[in-house]
Amino acid sequence: MSINYQTVMDELVVVLGKDAVSNDPVRRFAWSTDASYFRIVPEIVVHADNVEQVKQTLTIARNHQAPVTYRAAGTSLSGQAIGEGILLILGHDGFRKIEISDDANLVTLGTAVIGADANAALKPLNKKIGPDPATLSACKIGGIVANNASGMCCGTAQNSYQTIKSAKLVFADGTELDTGCEQSKAAFAASHADMLKSLADLAQMTQNNPTLAARINKKFAIKNTTGYSINALVDYSEPFDLINHLIVGSEGTLAFVNEVTYHTVEEAKCKASALAVFFNMEDAAKAVPPLDIHEVAAVELLDWASIKAVTGKPGMPEWLSELPQGAAILLIECRANDSETLNNYTQTVVEKIAHIQTERPIEFSDDPAVFGEYWAMRSGLFPIIGGERAKGTSVIIEDVAFELPHLAQAAADLTELFHKHGYPEGVIYGHALAGNFHFIITPTFSSEADIQRFHDFMQDVAEMVINKYDGSMKAEHGTGRAVAPFVEMEWGADAYTLMKQIKHIFDPTNLLNPGVILNDDTEIHVKNIKPCPVVDDYVDRCIECGFCEKTCPTSALNFSPRQRIATLREIERLEQSGDKQAAEQMRADAKYDVIDTCAACQLCTIACPVDNSMGNLVRKLRTPYITTTEQKVLDFQAKHFGAVNQVISTGFDALDIIHKVTGDGVTKAIMDVGRKVSKEVPYWNPDFPKGGKLAKTAPVDPSKPSVVYFPACGGRTFGPTPKDPDNRTLPEVVVTLLERNGYNVITPDNTRSLCCGQMWESKGDFKNADAKRDELIDALAELSDNGKVPVVVDALSCTYRALTGNPKVELLDLVEFMHDELLPKMQITKKSSITLHQGCSARKMKLEPKLQGIAEACAEQIVEPEGVYCCGYAGEKGLYKPEINASALRNIKKLIPTETKEGYYANRMCEVGLTQHSGIPYRHLVYLLEECTR
To answer: 230, 215 in Cβ contact below 8 A?
Structure first.
C-alpha cells in the first residue's frame, strides 16, 4: 500500500506540534545518522519527550501503515537504529528518570538516561548497573536494553537479560504495560489474553522439545545477540516474565521501552590490573579457561596486529616495541572490596596460569596511574585505527563469539580471512572470558567490487563462525541489518521459526523496525551502505559514533558534530556524483544548522575517540562566507581595536541608561530596528551588563612581588548585569584581590587594543586572529621581562586561545593563580551555597579540579547543574544567535535549588548567558574569593 507521508506529517504536526516533527530534507538526513555503516533516510523524524507523544505517533503510523523505528543515542553498529518511514528519536529532555530504591538494590531508569549517568548516581552507594558497554558514556538505557549490550566485565551474568526486574512498555497497538505493576498486568491480561496465551504456548512448546531447548541453552552459554532472546522461552513460563526478557535484545522490533528497573550490581572499591604477555596467540588463548573464575573480573585479549597498531603511540607502554613478533596480550583485572582480598585474588590468577610461559613476569598494579595506562592501550585501539585509516574508508567493528577452547584457532582463521579478502589492517581484540572477539577492518565502499569483496568476506566469516565453530555471529552489538541474513543460518529452521512467531505475536502488522533482526533479503547487509567521500581532514577522521552528542550545546537546538559532518559528506557526495545543483541547494539549506549555529566550543574533541574537532572545522568553513565588506570591517576592528572596544563599552553603558528610562519594550524595539540596519547589533537581553572599565593600580613598590595582569575583552567590555550584587567590574575586583595579597599589579598601557584573537577566529578570519594573538603575546613578554614576572589572564577562553600560539612566556589563567598562589595563604569565611559552572574552556584546559577547589574552599555546598557542559554563548555569538545559549541552558533554572542565589565561573561572556537563563547572577570566581577573604 502506498503511504502519503505528507498526510502523515500533517497529522503528526497537529497532535505533536511543529517543533517535535520534521520532514525537512537536510534535518531528516542528518538525524538519520547512526554509528553503523548503513544509510537509510526516513520520511519523517519525530522527537518524543514523553509516552503520550510515542502513543500519538503510533496511532497515526498504524492508521497509515507507516513503519516506525525507535532511536536512543544511535551508537549501535549494526543498522538497527535507522529505518524508512518514521524515525522516532528520544527527545533531549524526557525519559530521564533515575530512581534508586532505599537499599540501592534496584534502580529505575528512563529510556533516555545515559548509562554513565546512571552509574554516577549509583556510585556513592557502591553500586552500578550490570551492563557495561564500551559506549557507556554516550549510549542510553533504551539502546542498552534493546541490544542486550554488554562489555568488558558483565559477560553473560550481569547483562540486561540477567539483571532486568521489570519494564514499562508501549506496544505497537498503543497499549501500555508495566511488568512491575500488578494492576497494569491485570489490565493487560484482560485486554491481551490471546497474546499472553500465545507466548506461554510458545514457551511450553520449546521446553517440550529437548533438542531445541538444548540448542538454545548451548548457544546462550556464550555471548549471543544474534536474533531474539529465545533463551527466555527456555528460562521462563510465566507470560510477563517472557515479555520482560524477550524485550531485551529485541532492537525496537517488539515494543517501545519507556522505563526499566534493574537489579543493581556491586561496584568493587579496590581494583588491580596486569598485562600478561604471551609469545603467541595459542598460549594466550590457553590461559583464558583457567581464568574463568570468580576472582577475575575481566580478561581482555589483544592480538599481534592490535599490539602493532598501538605501539609507539602517546600513552602506550614503551616496551611494546620490544615484544617478539606474534606476541599476544591478556589484560587481566581483579576487583574486591578490600586490599587483602584483592591481593589474594591476584595471587590466585598468577598461580592459575603459571604453567604457561610468558614473555615477562605477570605483575598486578593497584595504582590507577599504572593500570590506567594498561586500559588506555585497550581502549585506545579503536580510536587509533579509526583515526589513522586511509581517507575515504569506513571503519567497521564486528563482534563474534566462540566457546573458549576454540579461541586460538578461531583467531588464526579470522586473521587468514583478513588477508584473503584484502583487509590486512584487520585487528582482533575483545572480551576473552566471554569468548568474544571484536575485529576492526577499514574497507572502502566506493565501487561495486568493494561491496562484493565485503560481501564475500562476511560470507566466509559466517561459514567459519557458524559452520566450523558453532559460534555467535553477533555477541553483543545486536543483529540489526548487518547480520540479519545469517540469523537462520546460525540458529536453524526451528529456532528461526520461533523468532518469526515472536515477532508476529508482538507486532502482527510488522510496524516496528521492519527488516531488522528478521529479513528475507540475503543481501540486506550490503545494501544502503553509507558512502564516505573524501571531504576534509576533520570530516574524514569522523567515524560517526555519536560520542560528541552528550556534551554538544546545540544537540537539542538542531545538530550535533556527527550530524554536521554527515551533512558535509552528503554535500560532497552530491558534488562528486555530478549533481552540482542538488549539492548547492543542500549547502545553502544546511548553512544555518551546520555552520552558523555551531558554538565551536570543542567539547566534541574531548569526547571524540579520534580527537576530532568540529569547532576547528566550522571556523575553517566560515572563511569563504566572509564578504569583501565584512573583511574590511574585520580588518578595521583589528587595526583600531582599542577604540572599538571602548565604543562597545560606552554603547552598553548607554543601553543601560535607555533601558532604565524606557523599559524592556522600547529598548527591544530600538534594538530590533538596529538589527535591520546591521547584523552587528545584538538581540535584546534584559540582563545585558553595563559597559566595563579598567582598574587603577597602585604605584609599584619594589619590595613587593609583581604580577602582570591582562584583563581580557569580556571583563573589560562588559560590567555588572542588573542582577549582580556587586557594582565593580572584573578588572577592579582582580586588582583589589591581588594588591590585598601583596602584589604589584602591572597591566599593559594599551590594554584595550590587545586581544587573543578569539572574536576573529570564531568568524573564520584566521589572519587577523593570529596577528592579534601574536601582538598580545609580544606585549606580555615585554611587560613581564620575558617571563620573569608571572603573567595572569582573567578569562579561560582567552587564556586557552593565547596558549595555542606557543607563547614565549608562561601564561597562567587567573583560576590557576588563585588556586595555586593565593588560596593557600588566605583566611576564608565560607558562604552557605553557590552554583558552579564547569564550562568548555575549563574542560579543555583540564582546570575543573582547580575551579572546584576554589569553590569548595569558599562555600559549604556546591551545586553543579547536571548536563550543563557548555553555556552555548560562544564568545560574542550569544549576542547574535541567542537561541544557542537558550537551548544549551534550557534546563538550568530548574536544576538550581531555590536557596542557591549566586553562581560562578571564569569567563564573562558565559556568565552573562548563565545569568540570563538561570535567574541568578553568575560572576567570575575572583568575586567569590575576594568576598570570602575580606
So the answer is: no
